[in-house]
Here is the input.
Amino acid sequence: MQGRRGQFDVLVDGRIVASRKGGLVAKLTKRPWPEPAQVVAAVREALAGQGPAA
Here is the structure.
């Protein structure tokens, strides 16, 4: 999947579980990038809700 410059999305089975949109608004509001630990926790939580893999 291709995004825009400064865009950061982590998807699990097509669902966004961690995100940060770049661009001017993010720069002006000084919206931080997600911490690696937050991203890992979000992915783990999303995977845990899926049940066992087929």
About this structure: The first strand starts at residue 8 and ends at 12. The CA atoms of residues 19 and 30 lie 15 Å apart.
